[in-house]
């Protein structure tokens, strides 16, 4: 494009210069020749001495009549066509007389056309040459970048100890880009290694004390305790069980690949819903609320037990915390479920923000950190599920999870 622009401007400049120079020189020559004819030949009553390619016309000389087509010409230089021939014409007025000198320029015009065709050919050749040269240079310049892009694209195993890329390239811009990628990849490898070590530590170090706590709670529940102490032991056991499930969920989210998200179901929706109803139903009723488990339609598909249990648990806990009176309902449908409450509802402008980490409603309830709905959103995204939120009339919220 640059070559086409420059060549086009250069060629156009040549054409303009040739035409302007030709007009200026032709004007000078015709004017000088017409002045000589008028001052010498015509003034002395002699016939004008003309070259074979030149014609003389005069309005006051009958032997040199001006054709009708020439009478409208303006003073000075002009170019006219007559019988497929090109003439340069110069018109001069002296008193009441009008004098015209015409010079045949057909040969010159033919030569000009040849010159302009040559200029056009050179322009086209320069564009084609620039395109070929630019293509070759671009491929040569882009070859290292293409090679680097292919090497980066195929480095999907980030934790493998692949050799660095920078030594394969010279110390230029591409080499600096390869070095920057090596540095970033190294940091990413270290981060992933720390994450894997952390998940391994969590799997080993947290599960053991949680099992100890759960075992102790089971032993204490068999002992003769006061109702108050028994309630505390039961609460500790539920908290330990919940923490165990959360640890399991976080480990799966950290380790599982997205292509494995929809595989490996071990529980039906009805089973998990019944389990969570037995767990949260008494707590909801203890707050003075009505709790219902409603089955609108059956669903025999199998889902990931840890994920489905965590989603249901968090939504029921959320309904418990944000409902002061009325009811909480868990409604099962084909391919999903709904959790409805008669609480305060969620303003429309906050319905997207409540799924962000550490974001809680305006009227905070419970001791959470605002991670429950964020975890629900993460699990649904990971599993390919959909979670929707809307308000109920006259008050309340509806969380709907589509599992298919």
Automatic annotation (TrEMBL):
It catalyses: ATP + protein L-histidine = ADP + protein N-phospho-L-histidine. One of its GO terms (cellular component) is plasma membrane. Residues 201-404 form the Histidine kinase domain. Its main location: membrane. SUPFAM superfamilies: ATPase domain of HSP90 chaperone/DNA topoisomerase II/histidine kinase (SSF55874), Homodimeric domain of signal transducing histidine kinase (SSF47384). The keyword Glycosyltransferase does not apply. The keyword Nucleotide-binding does not apply. Keywords: Kinase, Membrane, Phosphoprotein, Transferase, Transmembrane, Transmembrane helix, Two-component regulatory system. This is histidine kinase. It comes from Azotobacter beijerinckii.
